[in-house]
Write a sequence for this structure.
């Protein structure tokens, strides 16, 4: 009986030392280029990005995101919770960016504003779709 208690105690101690890796988030370590900003307002419609390489997001594995915002660069924290393997909630912290005046036409201000309202994501057909607060719109991204 004593041996049984010793073995049971050893199993408990060893199981307490075991670690399991947290599953990585499907966005962690990925990079994207903005292809369009779709507004749910009939007045604004959809803004197609003429040069997707100017508007980028890279999701770090450490909870930080790096942005290309036309001629500026930015960074912020990001937090996402997957509700399914391909979708869930997504938010960015305040975006700190350089403040160069980009030559017109530039949509940097519009994109930065939209990023502040991101509340969800969906991965579909090889693209990332970020939904905005209160069905305000969708940012469509392709892999970088």
């Amino acid at each position: 009986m004593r041996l049984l208690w010793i073995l049971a105690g050893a199993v408990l101690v060893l199981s307490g030392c075991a670690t399991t890796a947290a599953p990585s988030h499907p966005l962690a370590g990925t990079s994207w280029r903005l292809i369009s900003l779709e507004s749910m307002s009939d007045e604004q419609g959809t803004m197609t990005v003429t040069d997707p390489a100017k508007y980028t997001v890279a999701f770090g594995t450490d909870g930080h995101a790096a942005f290309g915002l036309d001629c500026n660069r930015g960074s912020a924290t990001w937090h996402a919770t997957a509700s399914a393997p391909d979708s869930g909630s997504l938010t960015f912290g305040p975006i700190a960016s350089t403040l160069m005046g980009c030559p017109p036409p530039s949509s940097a201000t519009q994109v930065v504003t939209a990023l502040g309202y991101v509340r969800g994501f969906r991965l579909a057909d090889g693209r990332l779709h970020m939904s905005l607060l209160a069905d305000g719109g969708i940012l469509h991204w392709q892999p970088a």
User: Anything to note?
Assistant: The longest strand covers residues 72-84. The helical segments are 2-17, 108-116.
